[in-house]
Specification:
Elements: E1 17-19, E2 24-26, E3 34-37, E4 43-47, E5 51-55, E6 61-65, E7 71-74, E8 80-88, E9 92-101, E10 107-112, E11 115-118, E12 124-128, E13 131-132, E14 141-146, E15 152-158, E16 163-165, E17 176-178, E18 184-191, E19 197-203, E20 209-211, E21 223-226, E22 232-236, E23 242-245, E24 251-254, E25 270-272, E26 278-282, E27 291-296, E28 302-308, E29 313-320, E30 326-332, E31 337-341, E32 346-351, E33 360-365, E34 371-376, E35 381-385, E36 391-394, E37 401-406, E38 412-417, E39 420-425, E40 431-435, E41 442-445, E42 451-456, E43 460-465, E44 470-475, E45 482-487, E46 494-498, E47 503-506, E48 513-517, H1 520-525, E49 531-536, E50 542-547, E51 551-556, E52 562-567, E53 572-577, E54 583-588, E55 593-597, E56 603-607, E57 616-619, E58 625-629, E59 635-639
Parallel strand pairs: 1-56
Antiparallel strand pairs: 2-59, 3-4, 4-5, 5-6, 7-8, 8-9, 9-10, 9-13, 11-12, 12-14, 14-15, 16-18, 17-18, 18-19, 19-20, 21-22, 22-23, 23-24, 25-26, 26-27, 27-28, 29-30, 30-31, 31-32, 33-34, 34-35, 35-36, 37-38, 38-39, 39-40, 41-42, 42-43, 43-44, 45-46, 46-47, 47-48, 49-50, 50-51, 51-52, 53-54, ...
Length: about 650
């Protein structure tokens, strides 16, 4: 999904100006932890790193907040929305419960707690306290928050001291469940004497235990889901899910394994239907799409597959639209959400389409400035329209990509990663050629698009002829630890820099060293400073490089004479030289993007918006726009016209 934060800002920046908002944000997506359907069925809330509320009929985003959590729930009358954020430390587990007005999205209450449920009358919120991670700690206790007055009252009753909540080993499943009537809470617990996961039921009004489980030998539970009537619960394990009785933990049935699959998966991928007669889940395929499965909850017999997904599903849940009406949501590994009608076996709405699930590691403008390519840490490569931010396509997967570059005078995109260099056809998104099989961290195309150079820590710099995909030669550099490389504007020289603190110019076809540059500071101190980034000026007359402590040095290409240097400071993570040769932009580990005058080092502007490290940035051909990629999952396009 794309999120437009602001319209294009066409007014020029003044010197030293700070920009708080970028022109366009290509919004990244994070894993989905849960969803809740507002009673009435008109809105659906998504819990991720952020809180998002969508109109279910149109699919439009109606509310967004950076405050979210791994648990989200609506009150029974639909007037309140609660999110729970849990923090697990070395010694204790604690959390914060935020209560929102579901109509205005105004924050009404914030209280401590690691879990929350609304009482059946929607007038109180039941919260459960955190606990300490040592054996004799008190078990979690209950509190009741009056939603009208905001006053919280602690319950005198809590779980039996012989039991504690099971948090360790919880991978995906929810820790607590409430029955459909809102009268019982079900909690996974483990005994201090019997360290195996069981399920206990307690009153939602008083917190008093009404069913104490008996010690049984069972596999560790990685997920539990209680039926609406409260009589049974589903125990998810690494092998096959088991249905057990709530009060006795007696086994009812084991879910039948799906045919021609690698087995069904535990976690949050199995749930009871609202009438408790069916269980929904997924196959877990290492290759190929997931399939939606339906079991009879009494016998464990498998019914025919209801739906096949195109992408790998990481989260499955049920949304109750009424007493008997049921919708299903499925979130894939990229955070894209689909709303499904399980009876008709069709997708009725897609939410959060597109975007990166994880931090964006590299970004590049196409030569004509119309397209942007981006790659994240999970290996996904996306193509965007640079003008309106529309996602055009996703490329065929090539593992994690450390560097992306458009090939000049061609309709191709290159990427370096752990499995060599991949080159995609931009129109189809398919890989059309692969070069090498080593880990290539940086790549560069010659200006005419005929040569490709790529650096690998173990072998140095490889140079290929793209006309016949032939490896021309490998330049020495294994012992130098090459950090960056680029071709000169005329394509006659290839520049590299690395751990020896020198900039080397090579003839890319013969492998001969043309010239090497060394800073005056390094000559005097005789201590190599690792050079991490470099770039040619547009006319090729000068070359700049930055070392690991933020010192930028400029040399004359023809003579190797040092022209100037200045200190930029530590914490730099990326560098890009503007096509006009007058400005350069830095990414930083704090998320700030800084643009400076090349020769004087004078601050031109500071761009604020990213929340994490900016490992890659690129100017368009005209130098009027700057694309920045960040580990926060976003790509921002800034208007930086002089």
């Amino acid at each position: 999904m794309l999120s437009f934060v602001a319209a294009f800002c066409l007014s020029p920046f003044c010197c030293g100006q700070t920009s708080e908002a970028s022109a366009l944000v290509l919004k990244g997506h994070y894993p989905v932890y849960g969803m809740a359907l507002r009673p009435g069925g008109k809105q659906v809330a998504v819990a991720s790193y952020d809180l998002e509320v969508y109109d279910l009929e149109t699919g439009k985003l109606v509310f967004h907040s950076a405050s979210s959590g791994r648990r989200i729930v609506y009150s029974h009358d639909g007037k309140w929305l609660a999110t729970v954020q849990v923090m697990m430390g070395m010694l204790d587990t604690h959390g914060t419960v935020t209560v929102w007005d579901a109509d205005t999205f105004e924050q009404k209450h914030r209280v401590g707690g690691i879990e929350a449920f609304f009482a059946p009358d929607s007038k109180k919120l039941i919260t459960i306290s955190g606990y300490a991670h040592f054996q004799k700690a008190k078990p979690p206790t209950y509190a009741f928050l009056d939603l009208a007055s905001g006053k919280a009252t602690a319950s005198e009753l809590s779980l039996d001291p012989a039991f504690r909540g099971l948090w360790h080993g919880d991978r995906e499943g929810r820790l607590l469940e409430m029955d459909m009537d809102g009268k019982l809470l079900f909690q996974r617990i483990w005994s201090q004497k019997q360290p195996e996961a069981l399920v206990a039921a307690c009153s939602a009004e008083t917190g008093k235990l009404v069913a104490i489980p008996k010690d049984v030998k069972t596999r560790p539970i990685f997920q539990t889901h209680v039926s609406a009537d409260g009589s049974r619960y589903l125990q998810g394990s690494r092998v096959r899910p088991i249905v057990r009785q709530t009060r006795s933990n007696k086994e009812v049935c084991t879910l039948e394994a799906p045919p021609d699959s690698e087995g069904s998966r535990g976690g949050q991928l199995h749930q009871f239907s609202p009438d408790s007669t069916k269980i929904f889940g997924l196959t877990h395929e290492r290759r190929g799409p997931n399939k939606l499965l339906v079991w009879d909850s009494q016998t464990g017999k498998l019914e025919p597959n209801a739906h096949e997904f195109k992408a790998k599903i990481s989260h499955l849940g049920l949304l109750r639209k009424g007493q008997d009406e049921l919708l299903m949501f499925a979130a894939d590994e990229r955070g894209v959400v689909q709303i499904i009608d399980p009876k008709a076996s069709k997708v009725i709405r897609r939410l959060r389409e597109g975007g990166h699930r994880d931090g964006v590691h590299c970004v590049d403008f196409s030569p004509d400035g119309k397209l942007i390519a981006s790659g994240d840490r999970d290996g996904h490569v996306l193509l965007w329209d640079a003008r309106d931010g529309k996602q055009l396509r996703e490329f065929e997967t090539h593992e994690r990509n450390w560097c992306l570059k458009f090939r000049p005078k061609s309709n191709e995109l290159g990427g370096g990663g752990f499995k060599g260099v991949a080159i995609w056809d931009v129109s189809s998104g398919k890989i059309v050629r692969r070069l090498g099989d080593d880990f290539f961290q940086k790549i560069a195309f010659a200006p005419d698009g005929e040569l490709l150079a790529a650096s690998a820590p173990r072998i140095g710099v490889s140079v290929w002829s793209l006309a016949d995909n032939k490896l021309l030669r490998v330049l020495p550099g294994k012992e130098l630890r090459i950090e960056d490389l680029c071709f000169s504007p005329d394509g006659q020289a290839l520049a590299t820099c690395g751990s020896d603190g020198l900039v080397h110019l090579w003839n890319p076809r013969t492998g001969e060293t043309v010239r090497s540059f060394e800073s005056e500071i390094q000559k005097k101190t005789k201590r190599p400073r690792r050079l991490e980034r470099l770039a040619f000026f547009p006319d090729g007359s000068k070359i700049i490089a930055e070392d690991d402590i933020g010192v930028l040095t400029c040399w004359e290409t023809a003579t190797g004479r040092e022209l100037f240097w200045y200190q930029q400071g530590r914490g730099r993570s990326a560098l890009a030289l503007c096509p006009d040769g007058k400005r350069l932009a830095y990414g930083s580990s704090s998320g700030l993007v800084v643009e400076r005058d090349v020769e004087t080092g004078k601050l031109v502007r500071t761009l604020k918006g990213h929340r994490q490290t900016v490992p890659s940035l690129a100017y368009d051909a005209a130098g009027n726009r700057l694309a920045t990629a960040s580990w926060d999952g976003d790509i921002r396009i800034w208007s930086v016209a002089p």
